[in-house]
Amino acid sequence: GTGMGLPAAVRDRVAAAHRGSTLPERLRLYDSWAARYEQDVAALEYRAPHLAAASLAFAYPAPREEARLLDVACGTGLVAWELHRRGFRCLHGVDGSAGMLERARSTGLYQELRLCILGREPLPAPAEHYDAVTVVGALGEGQVPSTVMPELLRVTKPGGFLCLTTRSNPSNLRYKAELEAALGRLEQSGAWQKLLAQEVEYWERATSEEESTQGTGYISGVVYIYQKCPVPPLEEG
Q1: Does some domain include residue 236?
Q2: What is the pLDDT of residue 20?
Q3: What is the pLDDT of residue 163?
Q4: Which of 216, 193, 192 is nearest to 205 (CA)?
Q5: pTM, entire model
């Protein structure tokens, strides 16, 4: 039983999104996927938006209504629903897919939505603008490169929070190692401190036996929460 009980079409669309491809191909894929995306991730039992929002809400100390959040690679707005449920009201989103943004706009949950291909161009925001930044589900092989961390930090206020997720399935392990090295270097330099790195066993359903954790039919993932240090790191040299 490959595909672990997922409909073949869903399995193919999810696998295609995780496969390395050229940027134009990937954006076309997401544009055409937008209409079916939420049904597909429901079939996947994709828990990252819920887990990320719960973790950020737990770490976030102040009243949430006033907090300004940037949801990077916001897709159709799954993360916004979860944040909104937890009292976050001022949400901005960016995504590389116009089709996904159109769906996100129709939720009415975002104050502002902008097209932005992270890794290719800077975020459309001034420095130290956001109380929290989330990147849920997009940090993976063939998606957002791990080199974007300084750009995420740039738009975060000193003392602000960053909530990131990645998958721990076999085909993403090389990326995960690169990501964790990048996260660690920034911590070493004093740019931010790690508040949480939580491994979650049942992240989403696996699209193949090879990806599944010990035959459970699921893959695992991680939620990271970092806090940007209030004092800027010392410039070297």
Answers
A1: no
A2: 62
A3: 98
A4: 216
A5: 0.90
47: amino acid identity, one letter: R
- Is 15 within 8 Å of 208 (Cβ atoms)? yes
DSSP H/E element including 163: strand 156-167
Cα angle value 96/100/106 (rounded, 5°): 135
Residue 234 belongs to some domain of the structure? no
Residue 2 lies in a domain: no
| 1 within a domain of the structure (yes/no) | no
Q: Domain limits at 194?
A: 8-228
Q: What angle do CA 51, 215, 143 make, to 5 degrees?
A: 50
Give the orientation angle of helix 78-85 with respect to helix 48-59, to 10 degrees.
40
User: Residue 57 and residue 64: Cα distance in Å, rounded?
Assistant: 8
Q: What is the pLDDT of residues 157-175, one digit of tens each?
A: 999 999 999 999 998 999 9
233: CB partners within 8 A, 6+ apart: 189, 190, 191
Distance CA 193, CA 228 (A): 7
| Segments of the chain with pLDDT less than 70 | 1-4, 20, 232-237
Instruction: Please report which helix (H) or strand (E) contains residue 139, including its range.
Output: none
The residue assigned the tokens 């090295």 is 181
Domain count, the chain: 1
Joined tokens for residue 37: 């995306």
CATH of residue 112's domain is 3.40.50.150
Residues 6+ apart with CB under 8 A from 184: none
- What was the pLDDT predicted at 208? 84
Q: At what angle do helices 98-107 and 78-85 cross, to 10 degrees?
A: 30
